């Protein structure tokens, strides 16, 4: 069984980052650290994602770098080889959960229904990604399942922003949220690292 280090109680917001150029990787990681967010989830949805993880793991040791959008056993193995320190999947099959466990890395498997949450609890997980959060019932869903299933804890992701993050973070079954709003595509394209530092700083004022 893989190590189940808590991922969801480290920072209020895990930045979900989509990069198109390897050259963006180290500056964006440094900007997040400068803004007070020492965690980054690099999504495996661009051809450069693994190279970005490698660069960050090598040059920005002060950040915890993980791979998101882990959809297949191959993604889990590739991300591990590239130096990812944690894995996040938007949904989970038993095959995918097993592959993530084989890496030995802490990971957050995804769920979006009561049955999926129960399945992950059966597999031994008590921390999971709730995705896609806003369209799957959002805060109301998490409140509703917190009664019967209080031991499942979540990182809601998908449709979260500065406007609604606090309402998620106030829930007892939410450890952190995930979102792309700390690293907007236009800021990345413009290499506007100061804007990313400012956006990241928001999360240092977020409710615990
Ligand atoms: C993800 O990619 O895991 C989430 O979809 C990010 O969602 P957001 O772009 O709505 O923050």
How many domain regions? 1
Main beta sheet: strand number and arrangement?
Answer: 6 strands, parallel
The level of helicity is 25-40%
Q: Which small-molecule species are bound to the chains here?
A: 3-phosphoglyceric acid
Which oligomeric form is depicted? single chain
**H/I helix tally:** 9
* Name of the level-1 CATH class: Alpha Beta
**CATH homologous superfamily grouping:** Aldolase class I
Low-confidence stretches: none
Query: How many DSSP-defined strands?
Result: 9
CATH topology: TIM Barrel
CATH architecture: Alpha-Beta Barrel
Computed Rg = 16 Å
- Overall geometry: globular
Strand order of the largest sheet: 5-4-3-2-1-9
- How much of the residues is beta strand, in percent? 15-25%
What structural class results from the helix and strand content?
A: alpha/beta
Could you spell the SSE succession in H and E letters? EHEHEHEHEEHEHEHEHH
Q: Give the terminus-to-terminus CA distance.
A: 30 Å
The averaged pLDDT comes out at 95
């Amino acid at each position: 069984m893989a190590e189940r280090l808590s991922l969801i109680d480290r920072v209020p917001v895990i930045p979900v980052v989509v990069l198109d150029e390897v050259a963006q990787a180290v500056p964006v990681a440094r900007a997040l650290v400068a803004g007070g967010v020492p965690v980054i989830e690099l999504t495996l949805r661009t051809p450069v994602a693994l190279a970005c993880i490698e660069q960050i793991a090598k040059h920005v040791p002060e950040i915890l770098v993980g791979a998101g959008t882990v959809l297949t056993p191959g993604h889990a193995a590739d991300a591990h080889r590239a130096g990812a320190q944690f894995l996040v999947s938007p949904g989970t099959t038993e095959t995918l959960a097993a592959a993530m466990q084989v890496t030995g890395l802490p990971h957050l498997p995804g769920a979006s229904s009561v049955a999926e949450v129960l399945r992950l609890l059966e597999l031994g997980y008590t921390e999971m990604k709730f995705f896609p959060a806003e369209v799957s019932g959002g805060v109301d869903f998490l409140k509703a399942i917190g009664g019967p299933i209080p031991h499942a804890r979540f990182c809601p992701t998908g449709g979260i922003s500065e406007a609604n993050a606090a309402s998620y973070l106030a829930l007892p079954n939410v450890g952190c949220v995930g979102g792309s709003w700390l690293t907007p595509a236009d800021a990345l394209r413009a290499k506007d690292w100061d804007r990313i530092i400012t956006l990241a700083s928001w999360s240092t004022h977020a409710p615990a």
